[in-house]
């Protein structure tokens, strides 16, 4: 079969033919609807895991969609270097963020530290629950101590459990110097250690 030779024409030809195409390092499968926001977004293998997690929060965790913010943009700094990356889900009860969920393929153990660091800069206070998941498994971490309190997607706290936990949590303030250190940690793991073609991270020129 002969294909058009111009790159843009080839890309459009493959789209119209229903072929999978690459954008950065993601395999684009088409378009899908974000379960939380209703937005039309790119359908990728990673996005399918994220959407499954969103459905799990609502159907099993009994959260309202309004309790969940998806793809939250977080600005991180390391000296003069800045970047914006995305936290997959922020989950609130009342007027406080009580849980963050960070998705990433592969090993979840190596993602504990940057996720904990993110939980200390996404708000002015410590987020009590930090979830790290690859879509198949999950570790639920105590945001204050960093210890694993449970594992498995089924162990992600439901709404009632999160409310009960937050009622007994002090939400300690994160001091500015601590926030600066945690921001550097996120930058080192998520930005310095990322693939240059990762379009989920936006590096900001100094």
Brief write-up:
The protein has 5 helices and 11 strands, in the order H-E-E-E-E-H-E-E-E-H-E-E-E-H-H-E. It is of the alpha+beta class and 206 residues long. The radius of gyration is 19 Å and the shape is globular.
- Beta content: 25-35%
Rg, please?
A: 19 Å
Structural shape: globular
Q: CATH fold name, please? A: tt1808, chain A
Strands, count: 11
Q: Which CATH top level class fits? A: Alpha Beta
Structural class call reads alpha+beta
Distance between the termini: 48 Å
Q: Determine the fraction of residues in helical runs and give it as a percent range.
A: 25-40%
Report on the biggest sheet: 7 strands, mixed
Low-confidence stretches: 1-19
Structural description of this entry:
- This protein is an alpha+beta fold.
- It has a single domain, classed as tt1808, chain A.
- The protein is built from five helices and eleven strands; from the N terminus they run αββββαβββαβββααβ.
- Strands 5, 6, 7, 8, 9, 10 and 11 form a seven-stranded mixed β-sheet that branches. A two-stranded antiparallel ribbon has the order 1-2. A two-stranded antiparallel ribbon has the order 3-4.
- It is globular and about 45 Å long.
- The N terminus is likely disordered.
């Amino acid at each position: 079969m002969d294909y058009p030779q111009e790159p843009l024409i080839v890309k459009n030809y493959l789209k119209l033919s229903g072929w999978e195409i690459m954008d950065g390092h993601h395999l684009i499968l088409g378009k899908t609807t974000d379960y939380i926001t209703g937005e039309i977004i790119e359908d990728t293998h990673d996005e399918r895991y994220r959407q499954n997690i969103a459905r799990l929060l609502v159907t099993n965790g009994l959260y309202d969609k309004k309790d969940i913010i998806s793809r939250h943009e977080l600005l991180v700094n390391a000296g003069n270097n800045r970047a914006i990356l995305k936290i997959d889900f922020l989950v609130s009860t009342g007027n406080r963020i009580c849980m963050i969920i960070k998705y990433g393929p592969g090993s979840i153990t190596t993602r504990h530290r940057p996720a904990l660091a993110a939980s200390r800069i996404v708000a002015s206070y410590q987020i009590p629950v930090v979830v790290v998941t690859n879509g198949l498994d999950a570790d639920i971490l105590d945001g204050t101590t960093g210890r694993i309190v449970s594992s498995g997607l089924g162990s992600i706290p439901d709404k009632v459990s999160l409310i009960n936990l937050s009622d007994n949590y002090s939400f300690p303030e994160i001091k500015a110097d601590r926030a600066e250190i945690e921001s550097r940690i996120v930058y080192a793991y998520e930005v310095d250690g990322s693939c240059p073609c990762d379009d989920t991270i936006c590096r900001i020129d100094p």
